[in-house]
Inverse folding.
């Protein structure tokens, strides 16, 4: 059992997000944790809270893509009918900029000067996208000293490995048809795809030109401009037995090394996407990296 504070985050666009603050109220440094696709602030807590000590806090929060389908409310709205459908199925990826900025602003108000983003799975894409849209004078990530990427898997690559190119192509055709008819938030027909997603989210996740295809290591000719634009330090932790990858860990590591401005890539042996059994190594590597940045 670990003590924490229940918090409410109001984003710049006045969206209400809820979270948990682990560790001291006035820490010297904080990790803002960005959860993955369909996850929540309760996901990966065993790993994330291991970073907590007398000087370090961890902020875990529900971004608007938490769980498969959820409700999204604006600040000060009282009526349920005024909430909107959200969750991984209906999320518009680019809204992650507002979500993360809300969490960053909350941490700033606690007087924290040393701040890091830690993304897991699709939270990695969100962390990098946020940094690419918040360039300080030096480039990439206003208010944040560095970004930690845990399991930064391409969803397109994962979908290709698990479902195959033909199924992705068939589903994409249906999704494009829905968007063309003004039904971008209509759920895909049952049985067409293994996940509950609306049309626009499928295209965002699982097409080569989708906005979420930031880690394009399976597309050698694609310009990874979003990732390359981030100039603050980036630590990439990749699992040797990453079950959602269709490429060897070494090749993926080389791709990240080539496309990060100030990147450090570490491949952790004998572990998978959730880093089970490697938690101590993850914490040790991240702490050592944070001391240098």
């Amino acid at each position: 059992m670990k003590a924490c504070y229940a918090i409410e985050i109001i984003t710049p666009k006045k969206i209400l997000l809820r979270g948990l603050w682990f560790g001291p109220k006035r820490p010297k440094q904080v990790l803002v944790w960005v959860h993955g696709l369909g996850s929540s602030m309760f996901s990966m807590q065993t790993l994330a809270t291991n970073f907590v000590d007398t000087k370090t806090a961890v902020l875990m929060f529900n971004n608007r893509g938490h769980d498969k389908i959820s409700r999204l409310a604006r600040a000060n709205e009282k009526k349920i009918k005024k909430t909107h459908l959200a969750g991984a199925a209906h999320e518009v990826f680019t809204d992650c900029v507002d979500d993360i900025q809300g969490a960053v602003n909350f941490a700033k108000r606690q007087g924290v000067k040393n701040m890091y983003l830690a993304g897991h799975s699709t939270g990695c894409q969100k962390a990098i996208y946020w940094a690419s849209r918040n360039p300080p004078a030096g480039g990439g990530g206003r208010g944040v000293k560095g970004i930690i990427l845990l399991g930064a898997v391409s969803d397109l690559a994962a979908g290709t490995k698990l479902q195959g190119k033909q199924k992705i192509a068939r589903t994409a055709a249906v999704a494009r048809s829905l968007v063309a008819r003004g039904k971008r938030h209509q759920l895909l027909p049952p049985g067409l795809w293994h996940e509950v997603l609306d049309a626009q989210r499928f295209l965002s996740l699982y097409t080569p030109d989708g906005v979420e295809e930031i880690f394009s290591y399976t597309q050698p000719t694609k310009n990874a401009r979003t990732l390359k634009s981030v100039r603050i330090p980036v630590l990439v932790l990749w699992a040797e037995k990453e079950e959602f990858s269709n490429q060897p860990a070494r090749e993926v590591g080389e791709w990240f090394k080539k496309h990060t401005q100030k990147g450090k890539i570490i491949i952790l042996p004998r572990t998978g996407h959730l880093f089970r059994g490697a938690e101590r190594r993850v914490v040790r590597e991240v702490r050592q990296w944070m001391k240098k940045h």
Q: What stands out?
A: Residues 75 and 240 are 42 Å apart (CA to CA). The radius of gyration is 18 Å. The longest strand covers residues 15-22. The first helix runs from residue 45 to 48.
